[in-house]
């Protein structure tokens, strides 16, 4: 049952024109953006007002994520949140400070009793800021229900925000979903840039296709008076005038927000940073955002000699809409052959598209050569489906078996396929150098697991395939490269030069076990360097330091004055900690000792006197 209607007050400068830098449903690295990012004049310290009567039911201080955040529960059961605050109002501030000293921790989460901190609509409950994972000063504002479902705040039609600007549509993506599927007689994901006239978009070419296809849309939304690229909340797909699919990003369950990875083309997002929303419900996607009525979850099945007039409608929270229209003509797949202008060296490459292994074999010959798949000494001849620019393309459904390697004109390339891992099942895999345990909820869809060990780097799957829940991995590193196990841990190497601390637990057999939410490359590294500490300032009112660590990252920091614990607040973006006294009337005086420890257990100590 929906909560009773409520007249919410806009939490920043109510009654005045406001601007947003973020809206509900934007695609973030591992979640949907859950509310509004309200601009605060590029500064901190604006008053934040309670949107309605209620009481403070939860409060949290953290270096990351939401930073300083207040949750206010209202009589109708809805909850509003106010995040990245620079300060809390009174008497909440004194309550939090006392709890921090009792728990001897800056970071904490509290759930006050219902009558402790009542608030009235329009009451100032804090000041806007830039704490936590914020990329600049603003207020993050959410509306949730009692089950932590995130509602779109703009549906409450705040007069402070004006939007008459329809979404923009940049690119159409079309992905073949079966082995017989084709887009312009090729088995590949195709992209089409749009041409705009007002809020109507087209693509210049007719799409010739066959079989089951999935459509994707690269779209953003802008609000009046702001250049920020926000998310488009609603997409509708119509074929020959009939709606076959719709998604509307609202009431997103907080615990399912990570499933944004299946809502978008995750591979393109991770490789290129571009966001394509799928106009179909992909396997493993349980989000309650969809209405697909064609029996194929929005996928289109194109038949030869048929014509499909397709429309994709992008709509924002204020009902501004843009429409992309194009034509798809069904075309029976045929063998085609085109040659490159110059002679090329024989080469082999491959990619996975769903269950289909696509092999691209380039040869100097003008006649297509067969491709050989090898498995346990046996050979399977793969006849090319088509040839383009002297590149023969062979297709193989991996559900028929996992080949060891591929051979073409004397060139052999190994695959490193280890196991077909179905979604929805607990499954374990082990070889000579690693073990992987998949939970029932680890995978969205079938995984064709590939592993590799090279130069003491362990590859598990690939970084461009999303996980829903973590997997547990055990690796056996070369111990000649490990001098001190107590300082050694697993690090995620990603795709660049960054190294993410994963930790891990050492076993008696010199293996180390860790959990990960991402597949990719991992390596055991040692961190033997203690964190760094630099005094920034000291006075009888406050002392501050800059702290850092070059590998495993900071784990804890504790300061003491004359042996008594002293609260240090932390801002990770500036790598700065500073003191806050429990008793404001008592000056800092005496010996100050700061101890900072990293995730490898290395500790640095700094001593000074005030």
UniProtKB/TrEMBL annotation:
Q: M23ase beta-sheet core domain: from which residue to which, for each copy?
A: 32-88, 119-148
Under InterPro entries, the record lists:
Cell_wall_metabolism_enzyme, Dup_hybrid_motif, M23ase_b-sheet_dom
Protein name listed in UniProt: M23ase beta-sheet core domain-containing protein
Domain of life of the organism in this record?
A: Bacteria
Name its species.
Answer: Pontibacter saemangeumensis
Coiled-coil regions listed? none
Q: Which SUPFAM superfamilies match?
A: Duplicated hybrid motif
């Amino acid at each position: 049952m929906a909560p009773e209607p409520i007249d919410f007050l806009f939490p920043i400068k109510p009654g005045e024109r406001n601007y947003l830098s973020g809206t509900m449903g934007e695609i973030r690295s591992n979640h949907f953006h859950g509310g509004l990012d309200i601009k605060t004049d590029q500064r901190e310290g604006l008053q934040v007002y309670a949107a309605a009567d209620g009481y403070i039911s939860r409060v949290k201080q953290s270096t990351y994520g939401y930073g300083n955040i207040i949750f206010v529960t209202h009589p109708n059961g809805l909850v509003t949140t106010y995040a990245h605050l620079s300060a809390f109002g009174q008497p909440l501030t004194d309550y939090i400070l006392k709890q921090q000293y009792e728990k001897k921790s800056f970071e904490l989460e509290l759930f006050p009793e219902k009558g402790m901190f009542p608030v009235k609509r329009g009451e100032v409950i804090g000041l806007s800021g830039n704490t936590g994972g914020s990329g600049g000063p603003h207020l993050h504002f959410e509306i949730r229900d009692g089950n932590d479902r995130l509602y779109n705040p703009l549906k409450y039609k705040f007069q402070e925000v004006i939007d008459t600007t329809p979404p923009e549509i940049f690119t159409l993506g079309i992905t073949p979903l079966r082995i017989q599927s084709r887009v312009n007689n090729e088995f590949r994901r195709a992209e089409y840039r749009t041409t705009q006239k007002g809020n109507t978009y087209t693509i210049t070419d007719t799409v010739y296709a066959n079989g089951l296809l999935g459509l994707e849309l690269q779209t953003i939304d802008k609000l009046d008076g702001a250049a920020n690229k926000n998310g488009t909340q609603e997409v509708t797909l119509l074929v020959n005038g009939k709606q076959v699919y719709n998604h509307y990003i609202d009431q997103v369950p907080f615990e399912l927000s990570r499933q944004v990875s299946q809502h978008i083309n995750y591979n393109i997002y991770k490789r290129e940073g571009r966001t394509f929303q799928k106009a179909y419900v992909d396997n493993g996607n349980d989000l309650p955002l969809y209405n697909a009525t064609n029996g194929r979850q929005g996928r289109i099945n194109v038949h030869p000699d048929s014509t499909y007039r397709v429309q994709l409608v992008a709509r924002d929270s204020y009902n501004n809409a843009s429409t992309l229209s194009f034509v798809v003509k069904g075309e029976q797949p045929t063998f085609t052959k085109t040659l490159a202008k110059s002679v090329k060296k024989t080469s082999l490459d491959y990619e996975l598209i769903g269950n289909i292994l696509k092999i691209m074999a380039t040869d100097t010959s003008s006649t297509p050569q067969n491709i050989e798949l090898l498995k346990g000494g046996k050979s399977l001849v793969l006849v090319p489906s088509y040839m383009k620019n002297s590149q023969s393309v062979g297709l193989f459904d991996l559900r028929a078996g996992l080949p060891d390697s591929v051979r073409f004109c004397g060139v052999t390339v190994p695959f490193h396929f280890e196991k077909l891992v179905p979604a929805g099942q607990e499954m374990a895999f082990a070889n000579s150098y690693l073990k992987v345990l998949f939970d029932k909820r680890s995978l969205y869809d079938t995984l064709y697991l590939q592993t590799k060990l090279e130069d003491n780097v362990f590859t598990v799957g690939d970084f461009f395939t999303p996980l829903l829940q973590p997997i547990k991995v055990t690796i056996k590193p070369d111990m000649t490269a490990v001098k001190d196990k107590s300082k050694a841990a697993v690090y995620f190497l990603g795709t660049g030069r960054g190294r993410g601390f994963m930790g891990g637990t050492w076993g008696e057999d010199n293996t180390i076990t860790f959990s990960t939410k991402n597949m990719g490359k991992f390596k055991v590294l040692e961190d033997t360097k203690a964190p760094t500490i630099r005094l920034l300032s000291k006075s009888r009112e406050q002392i501050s330091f800059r702290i850092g660590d070059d590998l495993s990252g900071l784990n804890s920091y504790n300061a003491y004055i004359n042996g008594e614990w002293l609260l240090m607040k932390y801002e990770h973006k500036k790598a700065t900690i500073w003191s806050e006294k429990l008793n404001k009337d008592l000056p800092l005086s005496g010996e100050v000792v700061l101890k900072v420890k990293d995730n490898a257990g290395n500790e640095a100590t700094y001593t000074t006197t005030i």
